[in-house]
Every structure is written in structure tokens, then in C-alpha cells.
Design brief:
With 187 residues, this protein is an alpha+beta fold. The chain contains 6 helices and 4 strands. It has a 4-stranded antiparallel β-sheet.
Length: 187
């Protein structure tokens, strides 16, 4: 598929079919991730691949608790988070967490490196016919090291990029919104 089609066609998908993502597709997503550029070619990223629906649901519930504790929410959003539905990971069949070893001196670089790896995965997912979404709320799981430890993320690591993937519900893929470059200065 043409790169421009992937860039312009990819959407943040929050509605998935009940269909698992095959291992060979997941392997291609991970391969795309590791080809991302990274500061001084450090390749700091580590991946936690979760297909177990109960584990995903548990992490979603914990994330929802952390969201409600961390900030005031509009009433409709609070009701959604209290509903018991998976309003964090949207019942996606695949969750991939990108984490790095904690290093306060390199945190910004590591965050950017993981973001670049994530973008490669999101574009590769679109090429594979998958929907995907970067779930920023899930970074609050860093406040719950016991939950991260249960899924194999060591205490000396920090979650940087939580991503969901799955086959999109064709009736619920968002339309593209207009975009334009906002150039501050052209010198």
C-alpha cells in the first residue's frame, strides 16, 4: 500500500470486531516498530503484547479508576467510566504496551523514540487492515506498578505508549477531519 494512503487513511478506531489478530500480523507490527528512528540508535523500547481479554479488561478497569481519581470529569464521562464497560481499551483484541527503562535524563528522548515506534506500528496496522488507537489515559498505569508487574513490566520501566489494535467495525470508522499545516514562520 502507498505510504500516503496509510498516512491519510489511518484513523483512531474505537470499535472492533470480535476477531483475534494473528501472530504473524503482530510480528509484522513489532518489526515495523523496531525500524523507527531512535536517539543515537538506542532502540530503548520494550513491548508487552496482550491478547488475553480478561487481562485487557482488568487493565482497563484499573485505568478508569486512576482517571477518575486524577481529574474532575464531566458527568457523562464519569458515568461512562463507572459503567463497567471497557471505555479505555474499547474491547480491542490486542493491546501492545511500549515501555522503556526509567532514566530521568533521557525521558523526553525515550518518549519521542517510543512515539516514533508507535507511529510505525499504527501505519503498519492500517496497511494490515487493522484499526488502532493510541490510548493516552493508559499511561496512568505508571501509578500502579503492581498492575504493570503482573504483566511483566519491571518496576524500573515506564509505560510510554499504550496501543490497541483489532479489525475495525466497518460501521464505526471515523471520517477524516480537515487538516492544514500551521506554519509559524517560513524563513
Amino acid at each position: 500500500m502507498d505510504l500516503n494512503l496509510c498516512i491519510k487513511g489511518r484513523r483512531s478506531v474505537r470499535s472492533y470486531l470480535d476477531r483475534p489478530v494473528p501472530r504473524e500480523v503482530i510480528d509484522r507490527l513489532l518489526d515495523a516498530a523496531v525500524w523507527a528512528p531512535s536517539g543515537m540508535n538506542g532502540q530503548p523500547w520494550r513491548f508487552t503484547v496482550i491478547q488475553d481479554r480478561e487481562v485487557i479488561k482488568s487493565l482497563s478497569g484499573r485505568t478508569a479508576e486512576l482517571v477518575m481519581k486524577s481529574r474532575p470529569l464531566p458527568p457523562e464521562m464519569e458515568a461512562s467510566f463507572k459503567s463497567g464497560r471497557d471505555v479505555v481499551f474499547y474491547s480491542a483484541p490486542l493491546l501492545i504496551l511500549i515501555s522503556v527503562k526509567k532514566n530521568p535524563h533521557w525521558r523526553t528522548v525515550n518518549l519521542l523514540d517510543c512515539g516514533l515506534a508507535a507511529q510505525n506500528m499504527l501505519l503498519a496496522a492500517y496497511q494490515e487492515g487493522l484499526g488502532s488507537c493510541f490510548i493516552g489515559f493508559a499511561s496512568l498505569l505508571n501509578q500502579s506498578p503492581e498492575h504493570l508487574a503482573r504483566i511483566g513490566i519491571p518496576e524500573d520501566h515506564e509505560l510510554m505508549a499504550p496501543l490497541i489494535f483489532g479489525y475495525p467495525n466497518p460501521n464505526d470508522v471515523p471520517e477524516a477531519k480537515p487538516r492544514a499545516a500551521k506554519v509559524l514562520q517560513w524563513i
